[in-house]
Amino acid sequence: MKEQNMHDARPAGKEIAYVTGGASGIGYATARRLAVAGFRVAILDLGEDRVQAAAGELSALGLDAQGYVADVRDREALAGIMDGEGRVDVVVCAAGVYTPRQFDEISDEDFRRTVDVNLLGVFVPAQEGARRMRPGGRIVTVSSRGALGGYGFADYVASKAGVIGLTRAMALELRPRRIAVNSIAPGFTDTPMTRTMPPDQYAKAVALEPGGAPATPDDIAVAIEFFASPATKFITGQTLFVDGGKSLGGLGI
Ligand code: NAP
């Protein structure tokens, strides 16, 4: 009963969802889904043109979206955006970087940059969001099936395994405040990120998919929307693999 009352402490009115990496790929599909579901959506990404185009596309559909250019590691910028919007109900941490490189070729600088964006870049918006959330708030991080391992992207694997650990730690510490924190681990998905792969590598990755095709961004966004929903308030600290069965073993690599 007490828990129900705490959830009722959420202020009335439209909930606001912040989506990092929201101007591209999985983040954009998520922003669109959440806006259709009735959220006001704040799209946070790099590149003024891309951000305004993404927000403009949603606004043209009659949806409530606002674009902001912000680096996910820029705490001051994120805090200013959240304070300007006035409330935080959901934070989706979808921004990320990926560069295929063999283990032996990864420099310290490469490693630092990947971990900086993919892990610190989850920690900062999640922490700023949690500080402003009322009971009932939700944080959704985006890890990767790659957190289980894979060839040619050890820095990325490490960063995405870190996201799962961070998600579990945040979930436990934020549970007394009734803030749910969960993660989605997408499998191979057709987005601008994976389209940077050389075509032969892209084809090889597709061939390893049990279903013979990559996910669409919306295949992933539907799962993010689930964790962003207020109905999932008793689910926390979980990682949902949305990978068409790839993590089940079968084909192996
Ligand atoms: P995407 O289309 O490249 O979208 C990622 C967005 O994040 C891009 O707009 C990117 O901007 C932005 N971003 C990068 N660094 C940023 C920073 N420091 N601050 C703010 N924004 C930044 O890639 P996606 O495939 O949709 O990926 C979304 C998430 O899913 C990522 O976390 C990715 O690791 C994860 N994921 C993807 C796949 C897949 O197969 N696609 C699989 C598993 C997990 P720039 O383009 O300028 O870098």
UniProtKB/TrEMBL annotation:
PANTHER family documented for this protein: 3-OXOACYL-[ACYL-CARRIER-PROTEIN] REDUCTASE, SHORT-CHAIN DEHYDROGENASES/REDUCTASES FAMILY MEMBER
Pfam families documented for this protein: adh_short_C2
Record bears the keyword Oxidoreductase: yes
InterPro entries noted in UniProt: KR_dom, NAD(P)-bd_dom_sf, Sc_DH/Rdtase_CS, SDR_fam
Span of domain Ketoreductase: 19-187
Gene3D superfamilies with a match to the protein in the record: NAD(P)-binding Rossmann-like Domain (3.40.50.720)
Domain of life: Bacteria
Record keywords: Oxidoreductase
Identification of the protein by name: SDR family oxidoreductase
Family: Belongs to the short-chain dehydrogenases/reductases (SDR) family.
